[in-house]
Amino acid sequence: MNQNDEAMTREIFGEPICCYSRAQAIEDGVLVDVSERARRAGIRYPTACTAGVWALIGTVPESCSVDESVRLAAVLTAMLAAIRRGGVRGTDRVHFVALGAALWAQCGPGDTAAPVITIMREGED
To answer: Which pTM was predicted?
Structure first.
């Protein structure tokens, strides 16, 4: 957001009551930055998942021998497949299933108003 946008926003809405940035959420562990792995999967926007999704990725059933990098790849692949099916036309979100859980991803402005993606479990927002 540039200074003119900030000034106009403050003029219309007044001073913010509270500001919590995406960077702070990542620093606090509320979000987990998975941008590097997402880029390798073909996702061009910075990508993070909620702590709830990260816990799902890190919870490996005893019957499963794959590590969290493979489970993260499964989540990213399922999200990309949902996007490619056209699940985002006219909306900023896509719903999909990965690792046996209902998930959704939202694309919206990050701290600098550039697009970012956040992956969440159903019910999280």
So the answer is: 0.81
Positive/negative CA dihedral, 99, 103, 105, 110: negative
Q: pLDDT tens, 21-73? A: 899 999 999 999 999 999 999 999 999 999 999 999 988 777 767 778 889 99
Q: Measuring CA to CA, which residue among 58, 9, 43 is closest to residue 118?
A: 43
Which residues are paired to 55 by β-bridges? Answer: none
The DSSP element (H or E) to which 74 belongs, if any, is helix 68-84
For residue 41 the two structure tokens come to 């999967």
Sign of CA dihedral 97, 84, 47, 20: negative
Domain ranges of the chain: 21-121
| Strand extents, DSSP E, 22-121 | 31-33, 47-50, 93-98, 101-109, 115-121
Strands 31-33, 93-98: pairing kind: unpaired
